[in-house]
Amino acid sequence: MGLDEDALDYHRREPPGKVAIETTKPTSTQRDLSLAYSPGVAAPCRAIADDPTDAYTYTSKGNLVGMVSNGSAVLGLGDIGAQASKPVIEGKGVLLKRFADIDVFDFELDTDDPDAIVEAVSLTEPSFGGIHVEDIKAPECFEIEERLRDRMDIPVYHDDQHGTAIVSGAALLNAVDIVDKDLADLEVAFAGAGASAIATAEFYVSLGVPRENVTMVDSSGIVTTDRAEADDVNAYKARFARDVPAGDLADAIDGVDVFVGLAVGNLVDGEMVRSMARDPVVFAMANPDPEIGYHEAREARDDTVIAATGRSDFPNQVNNVLCFPFMFRGALDVRATEINEDMKVAAARALAALAREDVPDAVAKAYGDEPLRYGPEYLIPKALDPRVLFEVAPAVARAAIESGVARVDLDLDTYREDLEARLGKDREMMRIILNKAKTDPKRVALAEGTNATTIRAAARMVEEGIAHPVLLGDRTTIESRMADLGLDFDPEIVDPAEAEALGRYADQLYDARKRKGLTRVEAEDLVRTDTDYFGSVMVESGDADALLTGLTHHYPSALRPPLQVVGTAEDADYAAGVYMLAFRNRVVFVADTTVNQDPGSAELAEIGRHTADLARRFNVEPRAAFLSYSNFGSVDNQGTRKPRRAADLLREDPAVDFPVDGEMQADTAVMEDILEGTYDFAELEEPANVLIFPNLEAGNIGYKLLQRLGGADAVGPMLVGMDKPVHVLQRGDEVNDIVNLAGVAVVDAQERDG
């Protein structure tokens, strides 16, 4: 099938459309229903009647945006009417939910009368935290937005005007930085004089481009003062009328620094680009066909041509999704009365700054592993970069507070953590660990220090202040790769071949392994050539606080040197691998997933104790369940007796101060109604959050099913039971995984110091 057929099938699948309403509170009992509706609902109604701001406390208003259109100017489709525009408006709501966790109610108004639209929308103010105006034709859209902003005390935002302006404004900030030009000196030509073009031109003026340096061209030619005086252009175009001779687009482009296309495709050719000033900027943003193709613009001349389009199949896509979800997120969270120019400028500057940062591996993978590094082909972040939420929304919120339109004074230092929690429980939990790590960063040895991903992770550790990374490996290789990556930080590098401690480390390894068949010569060779051994001895001797390895090795081979050199803790006979699985409303810790193939009862008990200790590092009070296919003796054989005995061993240990039970089936362990009903005698009064599997096979299968089918986000594997903080990564882990495990290792080291 073609794209159209696929899209029709996508939209008609049951249930039709793209959005639905879901409840956010329990509704499974009579008590729940009496709280949700009659008679309990009267209490919040009375509270809101007494204090209207309580609507933000007791209803969904504070996270609900009204998405309104009349379908008179749908991108690429024109005036298709209100009903036909509904799939587009639903889609816009999907983007708000997907990227910023904002709920949306769309309503399409079957009228072209601005008075009727203003009246209808303004009457909905009690329902919404903000209004998003979409796909209404110019010039009526200007009037409608202005009147709604004057009449309503909540944010009103017309994305067709401001979205392209803000995102292309961010691209402009970086483009002039790359070609070493000043905003105040730029000459800019616009093709198109509709809502997007006028708003973009106005925004460029807000960024610092002189209004008198902007030339606007509509279908009749350059917008001149003569045309304005003859009433040949509307009042919005007239703001950019210039006292210049009449002319066409080619005349307007000649000699300018920046061309902005918001018109129709194929208006510009290579000769026009060649007529522009040195190192020109070409933003050809008409869709689906740009005013000039990306490659055609780049190849038109020999100097630097910075190009952007509205298309996703070329670099530098100017995509409004980089702006409006995060604009609303920040505005809603401070209960802003409006979205003002300061907030828009703050959004653009935050986007521009983010493009200069190292790009997460997950983002690069989403775009086919293409290189994403600040420069002519990477001016603005990609739409799927989750960091946009954390950078733009706080910038918008801060601007709202500082410009006086916020009704809530957020703690901006913790606001990022609130935003991370919206994107997943794993982010919320990891922020607890990373914040702890920042209080006392430790030295973390990175065995694969020459690896580009490891180096980038080290830079993140320094940037976030969670650790002092030590890169192990050949110094020349590390420094060369840092230069290739364009990273501006100065890490500690330890090259084993030149390390003063080489002899001492060789002696230490030899003493530890000489009764295991290792000679002194072999020991020195290992610490010189194998950074896993070098790093293990480094940690064991106290020259580093923690070790991370395994990124380029199979797990067993990466684990072997730390086990041989560091070993298990005094109170531990076994190490174990643990994953934290984060679901929407809960987290669970599962073990063992990576180390022990067939542990006995004593091993299982020890794994349960160490996993519970790990849960507490995440501020989670553990409730442990030992899993089986049997419930509390319903099957009695060697296999079921093993987890049952493990649970008994922990309950008999006076040092264990958390609830433990087993053996039990997995659903018994995690379902409150089963524990409270069928097995009300169970030691667990609430569902378990520490799940101990009977063997490695079950643990590995179980966590992967929970991750893939259950939609859990996984953090790990985290190694517990070691004498010093050591963690073995999975092959192919990304920068974020390495940084997270470094944070866990640092907190582990902090606790051992304490």
From TrEMBL:
Its cofactor is Mn(2+); Mg(2+). CDD domains: NAD_bind_2_malic_enz. Residues 161-401 form the Malic enzyme NAD-binding domain. Residues 16-149 form the Malic enzyme N-terminal domain. It is an enzyme of class 1 (oxidoreductase). One of its GO terms (molecular function) is malate dehydrogenase (decarboxylating) (NADP+) activity. Its EC number is 1.1.1.40. Keywords: Metal-binding, Multifunctional enzyme, Oxidoreductase. PANTHER family: NADP-DEPENDENT MALIC ENZYME (PTHR43237). In the C-terminal section; belongs to the phosphate acetyltransferase and butyryltransferase family. This is NADP-dependent malic enzyme. It comes from Haloplanus litoreus.
